[in-house]
Specification:
With 54 residues, the chain is an all-alpha fold. The chain has 1 helix and no strands.
Length: 54
Amino acid sequence: MILGPHADFIIASYALTAFVIAAMVAWVVLDYSTQRRLLGDLEERGVTRRSREG
């Protein structure tokens, strides 16, 4: 694959994009686990969700 005279810029752009996407995925995964833990703590204390009937 020939990228031409701008190969360094193209490779750096793809690397930065991959890093940003990986960081966002990690952030979402960590936030998801934090929210699940907080929700579990609330449910243990007896707080229920209004959307859940019964």
